[in-house]
Amino acid sequence: MIIGYASLMCGRFALFTPLERLARKVGASVPEQKVVFRYNVAPGTWITAVRQASENEPPVIDQMWWGYRPRWAKSTGNQPINARVETVATNAYFKSAFARHRCLIPADGWYEWIKDTKPKQPHYLCRKDRKPLFFAGIFAEREDGSLGCAIITEPARGSATDVHDRMPLILDDASLEHWLAPDLTDRETIRSMVHHLDADLIEHWPVSTLVNKPVEGQGEELINPA
Question: Under which EC number(s) is this enzyme classified (predicted)?
Answer without folding.
Answer: 3.4.-.-
